[in-house]
Each structure stands twice: as structure tokens, then as C-alpha cells.
Design brief:
The protein has about 350 residues and is α+β, with helices and mostly antiparallel strands. The chain has a domain of about 180 residues. Helices cover about 70% and strands about 15% of the residues. Strands 2-3-5-1-4 form a five-stranded mixed beta sheet. Helix 2 runs antiparallel to helix 7 and helix 7 runs antiparallel to helix 8. The termini are far apart. About 15% of the residues have low confidence.
Length: about 350
Amino acid sequence: MRNITKWYTFLLMIMVVALILGGCSSSNDSSNSDSATSSSNGAAAAADSFENQSVATENSASSSSAEAPTAVAGEAGSGSIGEIAAEGTGTAMNQKLIYKANLTIEAVDYDKAATALRNAIHQSEGYILQFQDGQYNGEKSSTYTIKVPAAGFMAFIDRLDGIEHKKFERQISGTDVTEEYVDLQSRLTAQQVVEERLLAFMDKATKADDLVKFSEQLSTVQENIERLKGRIRYLDNNVSYSTIELRLYQPDAKAETKDKEDGIGDKMSEAINDSVDAMISVLQGLLVFIAGALPILLLLFIIGVPVYWLRGRSRARNKSMPSIPPQTPVTPSVKEETEEDDPNHPNG
């Protein structure tokens, strides 16, 4: 009896275990089917709400960069930020500084100073970005826009101070663009993440409408990426190479020597030169007046000569004609009148 009970209990346990295993397998099958359905629905939902996801990704990346700028800078720019900082700025914490300088040099000898300036640019491994020269009223001058490596910025300015000069003016300024640079790097990283997601969605898309939508969004994202890269390259160039605006000039040497001249001989010579210059100016003014009045004088000559000739001819004609004296009435004199009236006169 005891043996029968044992075998009955053993069979009952086997049946319970079989039922448990069957329930587990059915639950696994249903969960797998449910997960497949949910994944397909999730892909469709991702295609519809991609714009919101991309905006959220970019905003989250920007906020993380604002909270921890040093960590983002080290991660995104490993190999670029550190190298440029060590190469150009020489400051701690990977700061991005742009140096500019405005210099004015009054040279003793313009040609020698220009040669020394070109040598200094060559020694500093810089280059001339813009150049303009000229000579006005005896003064020689030229303006330069020079780019030199930031690591040798102050050394280049000290080298220019060695040029023989009468006056050396300089103004140096720096701009910290570290915050802007870190922000650009974080925005670039966010846009690149969006680009990767768009490419993945385009690979999985089967409808033409979805492909068109993804391609338009991808074009906008890639345009933003190129714009960000261009700004980063601009900052890198200006950080690694400092800008120097330089004006080199030499005043008129004759004007300087004229101020130093003195003595009676120099004053007499100057007075004679001034008189000659005044006479030349008067003659020049007279010639200019005659040249301006020449057409009018010629017109008067053409009109006046015939008139004068006609008047002379009429005068000559009047002189050749005989003159007839005017007839005057004869009036008796007083004596004759008294003789005629006197009765005692023998003729009366």
C-alpha cells in the first residue's frame, strides 16, 4: 500500500511540472508576438515624430554643454582644441583667444624700415594679407594687414620695436571666444546625431513619401552642419593666427630741413624764391586770363575792324566835298539910317 502511494505521488509531481513548463512556453510566445507588434508600431511613430526628437536632442546637447563646458570641449575637440590652445594662445583651460594689434611707426628711413618689416614677417613665419602704399606731399606711407602665429605674437611686436623709428604707437586687444567655440561644437555634435538618425530612417523607409520627407530634413541638417563647421574653421584660423594692422610712414624730409634752416643768406634766398614764384604766378594768371578772353577779343576784332574802316571812309568823303558858307541878311548900319532920316542931308 505504501508503494502505491509513493508512485501516485511521484506521477502527480511530474504532471504538475509538465503543466508549469507548458504555461511558461505559451507566455513566452505571446510576449514575443506582442514585442514584434510594438516594435513595428514604434518605427511608424518614430517616422511621424522625428522633428520633435531632433529638436529635443539638440536642446539636450546644448543644455549639457552649458552645464559642463570643460568636459564637452575636451570630448568634442580632443586633438583640435588642445592642440590649437597649446599652439596659439598659451593659456590654461583650453581658452580660445583672438589677438589683434594696431601699430603706427614713424620711420627714420622709410626704405630701410620697410625691408626690416618684411624680414620680421618672414622670421615670424607670418604673411601679408593686405598691402597699400603711396606718396602724398612728399610723405611716404604704407599700410599692412599682417597675420602671424599667435605663439609668436608678442615676439613679432618686440621685433618691430627694434626698427629705427621716431615714433612707435601700439594698441593690443584680445577677444575670448571660448564660450562661442564650445557652443558651436555642441551644436555640431547634436546635428551630426540627427544626421545619423535620418540616414537610418531612410534605410528602413519603404514609402516614397517618407523618403521625400527624410531627404528634405537631411538636406536642412547637412546645411546646418556645414555652416557650423565653417564658423569653427574661422575661429580656429583667427585663434591660431593673430591679426596686426600696421601703418609705416616717413614725413617729408624737405619740410623738416626747411624748419632747421636759419641765417640771413637763407632768408634772402627764400625771399628771392618767393618773389620769383609770385611773378610766375602773376604771369600764369595773366596768360590764363588772355586765353579765356581770346574768343571774345577775336569777335570784337572781327566786328570792330569793318566798323572802324567804314567810319574812316565816311570822314574822308566829307572832307573832300566843298563847303558853302551860309547867307546872312544885310542890315543897314545905324549911320546910314540917320543919314536917310535927316532932312538936312544933301541926299535927302
